[in-house]
Here is the input.
Amino acid sequence: MVHSSRAWPDPGVLDATFYGGSLMRIVLRLLLIACAMFLVSCTRTPEYDVIIRNGTVYDGSGKAPVAADVAFKGDRIAAVGKWEGVRGKVEIDATGLAVAPGFINMLSWATESLIEDGRSQSDIRQGVTLEVFGEGFSMGPLNEKMKMDLQDEQGDIKFKIEWSTLGEYLEYLVKRGVSANVASFVGATTVRIYVLGYENRAPNAQELEQMRGLIRQAMEDGALGVGSSLIYAPAFYAKTDELIELCKVASSYGGMHISHMRSEGDRLIEAVDELIKIAREAKIQSEIYHLKAAGQSNWGKMDQVIQKVENAQAAGLKITADMYTYIAGATGLNATMPPWVQEGGLKEWIKRLKDPAIRKRVKQEMMTPTNQWENLLLAAGTPKNVLLVGFKQDSLKYLTGKTLADVAAVRHKSPEETAMDLVIDDQNYVGTVYFIMSEENIRKQIALPWVSFCSDAESMAPERAFLKSNPHPRAYGNFARLLGKYVREDKVIRLEEAVRRLTSLPAQNLKIKERGALVPGYYADVVVFDPATITDHATFDKPHQYATGMIHVFVNGTQVLKDGEHTGAKPGVVVRGPGWKKGSGDR
Here is the structure.
């Protein structure tokens, strides 16, 4: 028999010496090949900056998830799929975890908290990669009088006002450094104050044209549209036709109207009708801020609200809504008092509250049911359901966490008189939580395919100035609560649908380009979380508690959350609306 080194020998016919030598040569040859392959792989330039491997990918479309890898190059998603033989500079094993687009907070009040701390901790730790501002009040345009008022009314967070327009404010945030992206509507209230101050009257033709010009400037600076908040003075003074004229300007740029409607309680149905009328006559896409039926007597109206919205949709109007996942709302004690007493702004309001005759009238109106204005004290049912959470004056901070009923009892005064006294003593609106909604309606709203989500709160951290007041727990838990309680535990909607409504739905409504989906070429705003453990921990008693279960967060391809901890990175940019005139894209 002839033996060849190219054929594997039969050990039964070979002597031990020959077999041992042949095996050694083969082993050495294999080792050399392995070493060569290792050297090639070590010297090969990684194809991608980041690869998230082995995750369950929820792409934002609402379709069932798939097992796939997601790769970034720079600030963009480069590929989604499965590949062999490719490498990333950073590789993350997401086995057993969900990979999704970054979440969009449709109503954020992080306008000042991001000045204090640009890390946006409480929202980043829930996967929020875009904060959207502008519920009636926006951080521009500001005239000199408005700047002075804003400076005077600052509470625990102090800052210099180094901007005038809304576009300048957004650039100011990014220049300081923010972890999340930022965007804003221009506030209809802000524009009204700029031109009319706090007067309770309609604008004349010249004033209205000035207001329209301010909307035009904001839209060209990148505003997403017009935001209104119609239960509050001085927004309450604006008539429907004024809002229609402002919205026509935003519509001409492709923007939308988003509104805290004129009523969420006794005149809820009429308020929906007004929103639909504005949408129809201004030819503008419209959204209801934080959809709710406030006050037990109004809880049964939600079905009629849903029917009205869906009828409008069927008629060709684009009407949507957003919501937070709690039965309590939060605003100030101004929502317990009639708008007429607040005319002229905070200082004039406080001055009137010191007049005995006016106090008597205000107290009577605070106690009397009406459909002429939104009274959240009556909507709460009892002052025990009115929680005081934020004071400007250090001398009053000991009352934080107490109810209006508690304070009234200690002071031996009525709840109405106590509310007036607190506004006077604090020289401010006094942060307040009102328990006014039903759990049944929360679940019903979550199930609606046209509803996205918002925190209606700051993005903060349990440190420094933030600990001087108690926020609504939605500031720390709104998005995690959706995914933990309502998706995993209560199964109100499936996870893929929840992700769609946190990502592509709001992105499409806002006409934001190249965000909100895991698609090659889109910006790499990506989150990795554990669907089995994501949980909110903030409570009304102890709100300063981070949510858990969010593992990694990337904003524009940069990692801002790693293994559940903030990296300190601040890659956020300004995301601009469809009317932006300074360039193309959304930066």
In short: The chain is about 35% helix and 20% strand. The chain has a mean pLDDT of 93. The two ends are 76 Å apart (CA to CA).
